[in-house]
Write a structure and sequence with these properties.
- This protein is an alpha+beta fold.
- The chain has three helices and five strands, in the order βββαββαα.
- The strands form two sheets. The protein has a three-stranded antiparallel beta sheet with strand order 1-2-3, with no helix packed on it. It has a two-stranded antiparallel sheet with strand order 4-5.
- The protein is elongated.
């Protein structure tokens, strides 16, 4: 089971603690990364793991690569991202179109991607 604790100590900064580390999020985006940026970062980071896994299993030399993850915030049906676009730059790694398609399909196995696609129920309660 995954679990994080998000603690607000006043003002706009919240402190996030998980079993694997701690970091600060700034809801005003002035002193740390903003919440929506962390969502996009989670998606890109998860996909990055799957890209590396794909490259290793396919024996593709891929030392560096970059993911650009972007989205527009819309206000219909409440504020939300309407579309999220991910661009993968393989930094010169040479792979054919068939492997590129396979890579895209493999990366879609990322749990963050699957979670966003399947719109999980979110149960909120005040204790």
């Amino acid at each position: 089971m995954y679990k994080v604790q998000v603690k607000n100590k006043g003002k706009s900064e919240v402190y996030v603690k998980s079993q694997s580390g701690e970091f600060t999020v700034d809801t005003d985006a002035k002193t740390a990364v903003a919440p929506l940026d962390t969502l996009l970062a989670a998606l890109g980071s998860c996909m990055s793991f799957y890209i590396r896994k794909f490259a290793q299993s396919a024996n593709i030399q891929m030392d560096l690569f970059t993911l650009d993850v972007e989205a527009d915030l819309v206000s219909d049906k409440g504020y939300r991202f309407k579309d999220i676009k991910v661009s993968i730059d393989l930094d010169g790694a040479v792979i054919d179109d068939i492997k590129k398609q396979s890579l895209v399909q493999f990366v879609k196995n990322c749990p963050v991607h699957n979670t966003l696609r399947n719109m999980p129920e979110i149960d909120i309660k005040v204790v």
